[in-house]
Amino acid sequence: MVNIASLFGQSSPPLIGLDVSTSSVRLVELAQLGKGELRLERYASEPLPRGAVVDGNIENLEQVSEAVRRVWKKSGTRVKLVALGMPPASVITKKIILPAGLAEDQLEVQVESEASQYIPFALDEVSLDFDVIGPAANSPDDIEVMLAASRKEKVEDRVALAEAAGLTAVVMDIESYAARAALDRVIALTPQAGAGQIVALFQIGAQVTHISVMLDGDTIYEREQPFGGSQLTQDIVRTYGLSMEEAETRKRAGDLPENYQAELLTPFLESAALEITRAIQFFYTSTPYTRIDQLYLAGGCALMPGLLDIVASRTRISSAVVSPFKGMQLAPAVRESQLRTEAPAYLVACGLALRKGAA
Fold first, then answer.
1. At what angle do helices 244-253 and 230-240 cross, to 10 degrees?
2. Residue 40: which H helix or E strand, with range?
3. Helix (H) / strand (E) containing 62
4. SS3 assignment, position 99
5. Which residues of the chain does CATH 3.30.420.40 include?
6. pTM
7. DSSP code for 141
8. Over the stretch 91-113, which tens digit does the pLDDT of each residue have?
9. How far is residue 304's CA from residue 22's CA, in Å, rounded to a whole number?
10. Assign residue 278 a region: left if phi > 0, alpha if psi is -120 to 50, beta otherwise?
11. How far is Cα 27 from Cα 45, in angstroms, rounded to an integer?
């Protein structure tokens, strides 16, 4: 049984969450203070050159590992154990039912046997892990087990990335699982959170928007749409004749000509709201569900001026931008004003850093 570096297991030594996306590398270090209290020790990000990571695949190990080294140094951390994320598309997950009371080695044999039915690759090409969720709902003699599998080279690429940057990968999670772990913690702090709530999370990245819909903590719907903030950056490049790097910098700083808002930003916000409303309609038509109680925005675009208002207006759903660090103490080195403008982009990195609980 080859494990995806403790995909589901918790890691007791201190570790940092490292989120490698298409556009940047983000790092988060948390400290456990006891009684469920957390402190954000440090966080940092480094941009990635275009083409270094494509569709979740590390295309240029040297460029990405150099960015990881820079973000590690910039953050000031001394922790060298890392939790990394895998793109959801590169991991097959499946809930299976197995007999209760099996010994660990028997459970592994059963999981491998079941896995061979669901995985379209030879098992020796796959990194495999599983987690016992608990008793099966309608059968007291059985247990529910979550199976996860990924091509070995996908896992090895991330392990090699950590090693090239002088770090050690000890946990490999699925990015969407990490995001949900961070969101679940925030929802638990919300007074109106209750049983039966349907929550939608839209993570708007540079290239892709990842959509997850959850009911009582379980994912009931998940998909990706090819829409992200780089479309606006490309519009800025074309309109003002800037490089991609300069366009991205000036977009973030709000340092663009007067006509930017009317001619570029407003149409982009309209497109984003349209993508989100279409995704919600698709969720309604392709599932038995007919409502969403709360909508959360995350990712690098979430705090774009005007986005939250237009999404709430178009969808008519209670909407908020999620800060994964809500309710945490902040270390002296963390600047709260800066954190407020950057936090939504760190949802996955924060979820990865949360994996440092008890073994």
1. 110
2. strand 37-47
3. helix 61-75
4. strand
5. 190-325
6. 0.90
7. E
8. 888 888 888 888 888 888 888 88
9. 19
10. alpha
11. 6
What b-and-e string marks burial along 320-358, b requiring 16 or more CB atoms within 10 Å of the CB?
ebbbbbeebeeeeebeeeebeebbbbbbbbbbbbbbbee
Report residues of the chain scoring pLDDT below 50: 1-5, 8-11, 357-359
Backbone Cα Rg of the chain: 21
* Token pair for 265: 């930003």
Q: How far apart are CA 263 and CA 308, in angstroms?
A: 19
Distance CA 119, CA 336 (A): 45
What is the crossing angle of helices 266-286 and 230-240, to 10°?
150
Which residues, in sequence order, are bridge partners of residue 297? 202, 321
Per-residue pLDDT reduced to its tens digit, 324-355: 999 999 999 899 988 988 999 999 999 999 98
Per CATH, the number for 90-152 is 3.30.1490.300
Predicted local distance difference test score (pLDDT) of residue 357? 42
Distances (CA, A) of 46 to 23, 64, 69, 98: 9, 10, 10, 44
Name 120's Cβ contacts closer than 8 Å, sequence gap at least 6: none
CATH code, residues 190-325: 3.30.420.40
H or E stretch covering 95 = strand 91-99
Nearest CA to 148 out of 172, 124, 168 is that of 172
